Prior knowledge:
- The chain has about 425 residues and is mostly beta strands.
- It folds into three domains: about 140 residues, Sandwich (Immunoglobulin-like), CATH 2.60.40; about 110 residues, Immunoglobulin-like (Sandwich); about 140 residues, Immunoglobulin-like (Sandwich), CATH 2.60.40.
- About 10% of the residues lie in helices and about 40% in strands.
- The N terminus is likely disordered.
Amino acid sequence: MRKVAQACFTVVALFGFLTLRAQENAITPDHIYHRNIATVKLNPPGEPLGMPVVALNSNETLELSFDDLLNEMRTYYYTLVLCDADWKPARLNPIEYLRGFTENQIRNFRFSSIALQKYVHYSLQIPNSNCMPTKAGNYLLKVYLDSDTSKLAFTRRLMVYNNRAGVTGFISQPTNPKLFRTSQKINVAVNTKGLNVQNPFDQVKLVIQQNNRWDNAITNLKPMFIKGDVIEYNAEQDCIFPAMKEWRWVDLRSFRLQTERVQKTDYRKSSTEVTVLPDFPRDNVVYQYLKDINGMFYPGIIEDYDPSFEGDYARVNFTFPAKEPYAGYDMYIFGELTNYELNTLNKMTYNGPRQAYEGALYLKQGYYNYVYGLLDKTNNQFSTEFTEGNWWETENSYTVLVYFRSLGGRYDELVGQLRLNSLLNRSR
């Protein structure tokens, strides 16, 4: 009887573990689960355009901030989950990769003051003494309500690196004549002398990001050459990104002044509505360099106010003129301002009488980059080729992330990183 009970307990425990793993694997990184959550940023303090990366066992921290538009004090908690290179949870217990507590409350908050849109602004410094990663790798930051992990508010990626591999690289034009004028190729070499690499095809993983984006990151790369301790990734068909064009922009740092690219501002008793100047197709427009922030945004106010709790929100209207709709495609406004996602909130609607696509986003005062893209209804592929165009000359930033798994290891360690710029690191 006791053996039967023990067997039943083992089955139940195993089922519970598998259920938990399935739930964790279903969690989407960098996703907001509630519409009342807005303006989520995770970056080094004072660097709103910085990457969420810190060095292992250092004093480096990241600042998390977000607004709750329900304007009532709610109890938010957070935790970190160690993930593999593909952002699936690693098969480790939290006590193996976290020092402190696996669950912590966000205690720093402030109610908005002068804004028409009332909200509560929350902030957090992480890592901290209550939650300190002890291993290098990918971490999924989960923020949830009332100490209940099933009540997810949002998730964010952050990375902890241990610099054990040397990484070098440069950017070139692809040799393929079809891509030569429209794309950028990343060439990478990884020095693994500080690692015990027996099988570079399985133990070393490379991820390449364009402009800090994960939606189009290149993964599953295989080495082209192995020369002693150096692994080269430069196959002719690999590591190639559409070069895009400099991102569009709108300056929303003031709702009182006529800021750049704002057509008009309508003031209501309890809200504000901003209309952006029409954005025309640029796919056949000759390339022109304009300094941008590579698709990101930062909260800010021209006047002498604190954007964290004094910044206001507005409905921002966007228009993309087109004589007729793009047959077989849906149009979206896209960038960090839309969380790099495609959903009903950032989908554009075609207005026949006005011959234009129209859409609106609810945004906080700040400076924003964005583009327009088309989702092919047949193959579900997203592209900005027909709305923005692709030009080899475009300025883009690239991040190379190198992961290593030791023999018998149970997680992927982030052992190297490299930042490249398409203007500064081109091949000569």
